[in-house]
Design brief:
This protein is 77% helix and 0% strand. With 226 residues, it is mainly alpha-helical. The longest helix is centred in the first third of the chain and has 23 residues, at 27-49. It is globular. The two termini are 33 Å apart.
């Protein structure tokens, strides 16, 4: 769990530094910075989406995952959590949505090959080097994100700890199924969700991105049969 704990601390510290910068950042500049970040997120999404090799697995994963996500309605729970936090910290975050920062950062930090592969290495061999590298990247990203999206970015550190920690603890069970092909398809599906996230950040769409998150895990099952 050491790698996941370090990743948690890197995001929390980076987010705290970003909040310090945010206090002296004019609203107009903060909005422009957020749009710039959205374009970077869009680039990350398109880059990762190219890793997929079987379009049928991607389509089925998105379709089944969307149905499950809508049925559970993860987006509603995240918004409720954000609203509760905003009520507690009312007046400190201005017009910034805590839930927006939490969802945006959580998806960016949890989706991708580094999170999966690094967690598996940590659990199977005790090698935390990949997660240490990811921690450095995420810490820098957290500074930038928190400077525009606020305290919700810091809360995403908890989501990363739970997500990566779970994979680490279940590494012995999951490793036979998380082949390079499966990881590529999971990265592709997750990257498509990141593209949707970027479109929301650009205010082009209002997608319920959290309701699409279950789709990330369906390639594990579908790759067994396709």
């Amino acid at each position: 769990m050491l790698g996941s704990v370090v990743n948690f601390l890197a995001i929390a510290v980076g987010g705290g530094i970003g909040l310090i910068f945010k206090k002296g950042l004019p609203e107009k500049i903060g909005e422009t910075v957020m749009y710039g970040l959205a374009l970077c997120v869009l680039y990350i999404g398109f880059s990762g989406a190219l890793s997929g090799e079987n379009i049928l697995i991607v389509v089925l994963s998105m379709a089944i995952g969307a149905v499950l996500g809508e049925w559970i309605d993860l987006d509603r729970y995240i918004i409720s959590l954000g609203n509760w936090l905003e009520a507690r910290y009312k007046g400190q975050e201005g017009t910034t949505s805590i839930s927006q920062g939490f969802v945006t950062a959580s998806l960016l930090f949890c989706v991708g090959a580094l999170a999966i592969v690094g967690s598996l290495q940590s659990g199977l061999t005790g090698n935390h080097e990949t997660l240490f590298t990811k921690s450095l990247i995420d810490g820098i990203a957290a500074i930038i994100l928190a400077s525009s999206l606020g305290a919700g970015v810091i809360l995403s550190a908890g989501a990363v700890l739970i997500y990566q920690g779970t994979i680490t603890l279940l590494a012995q069970v999951l490793s036979p199924y998380l082949t390079p092909v499966v990881i590529n398809e999971m990265t592709c599906v997750g990257s498509l969700i990141i593209i949707g996230l970027a479109l929301n950040m650009l205010k082009i769409t209002r997608l319920k991105v959290m309701n699409l998150v279950p789709a990330i895990f369906f390639p594990i099952i579908l790759c067994l049969f396709m």
